[in-house]
Amino acid sequence: MLQNFIPTYDATVVERLQAHGAIIVGKTNLDQFGMGSGCIDSIFGPTRNNWSEDINDDRFRIAGGSSGGSAVAVAAGLCYAALGSDTGGSTRNPASYCGIVGLKPTYGLVSRHGLIPLVNSMDVPGIMTRTVDDCASVLNAVAGPDVYDSTTVKRPFESIAPLEKQMSLKGVRIGIPVEYHCDGLEKEVLETWTVIADMLECAGATVKAVSLPNTASSIFVYSILNQCEVASNMSRYDGIEYGHRSQEDSSTEQLYARTRAEGFNGVVKNRILTGNYFLLRENYDKYFQKALKVRRLIADDFARAFKEVDVLLTPTTLSEAPLYKDFVQSNNRDQCAVQDFCTQPANMAGIPAISIPIRLSSRQLPISLQLMGDHFTERNLLQVASWIEKQVDFVANYS
């Protein structure tokens, strides 16, 4: 739909990076309009994970999605940092599979101006780097109010000072959500989660179990809200103002229909149709309104948890990067339900979350963990992530 489209202005995050001296080297691959968790639904074809044992045919590992191209670019050393969009985990998921750091900031901390919207109420520009320090540097450059984006917070952003190299964890409260020990969680991911929790406790942190009872409902609520907002956001692509335009000229209605039939892939069309079904007058209360109510319950779960703990420690993904040939056995919707289980609730609540690589699995593939904090606690989140990063030294040991 936007294959030959050249934007008339830069996104705010791009402008701010350039103002700080950054060089933009190119655009990266992603699932069409960010709809996917494998970076395989793109007109350019699937993105291959550079940790793959074999990148030929269909025996390669997926990069994760939707921002898999950005993750691979960073992991391969092609760039210092990359941007992605995070709606349900689309920066943390590929960061996990590719063995890099992926940050989803608090909703409203970083401007969405110039970000093509998927789900307006959850989309956040995400940051991918090789180290936590690099991630903090990029966040300092792009965060803060923006007059062009009414969803950004109005208070000035206080730059995050250099992270402490010898941080004490005494007094830091770490929560382990029991609901994240779920079906499908691979043994090696669980072992890694347990080892890091023990490591934090031995270093003086208080580690305790907490409950987020509505987590299991999060992915279903997300699916409904996602498809409803997609149905609204994709209506702008009609072949009239910008983007692909069909050669159909029999009527305006046929021009719209043919343009959208040619420009959207099956995943996008499916979400548009489903979203419009949920928004029908007879279905609005039963689906959309009810999903909004459960979303509030999910956010309330996090609010209660952060009265007891400072940071939540969870897996980022349930497994290491799957093989492409195995991943495509399930449809896009079912894959998103599995791949985004641990990452999506943070978007529902608008809280910050970061994925950091910990070690390699027995198949020599990255295993990562996720840290989540209360709104606008990026400094504390990055500091704890930096401490873990120093202990495991993933970059030095495995990259």
UniProtKB/TrEMBL annotation:
Catalytic site positions: 66 (charge relay system), 90 (acyl-ester intermediate)
Keyword terms, alphabetized: ATP-binding, Ligase, Mitochondrion, Nucleotide-binding, Protein biosynthesis
The keyword Protein biosynthesis is annotated on this UniProt entry: yes
Entry's Gene Ontology molecular function annotations: ATP binding; glutaminyl-tRNA synthase (glutamine-hydrolyzing) activity
InterPro entries in alphabetical order: Amidase (IPR000120), Amidase_dom (IPR023631), AS_sf (IPR036928), GatA (IPR004412)
Chain's role: Allows the formation of correctly charged Gln-tRNA(Gln) through the transamidation of misacylated Glu-tRNA(Gln) in the mitochondria. The reaction takes place in the presence of glutamine and ATP through an activated gamma-phospho-Glu-tRNA(Gln).
The keyword ATP-binding appears for this protein: yes
Localization in the cell: Mitochondrion
One Gene Ontology cellular component: glutamyl-tRNA(Gln) amidotransferase complex
Catalytic activity from the UniProt record: L-glutamyl-tRNA(Gln) + L-glutamine + ATP + H2O = L-glutaminyl-tRNA(Gln) + L-glutamate + ADP + phosphate + H(+)
Domain of life according to the entry: Eukaryota
EC number: 6.3.5.7
Annotated Amidase domain residues: 1-382
Pfam families: Amidase
Enzyme class: ligase
GO annotation (BP), single: glutaminyl-tRNAGln biosynthesis via transamidation
Gene3D superfamilies xrefs: Amidase signature (AS) domain
Oligomeric and partner information: Subunit of the heterotrimeric GatCAB amidotransferase (AdT) complex, composed of A, B and C subunits.
Name of the protein in question: Glutamyl-tRNA(Gln) amidotransferase subunit A, mitochondrial
Family to which the UniProt record says this protein belongs: Belongs to the amidase family. GatA subfamily.
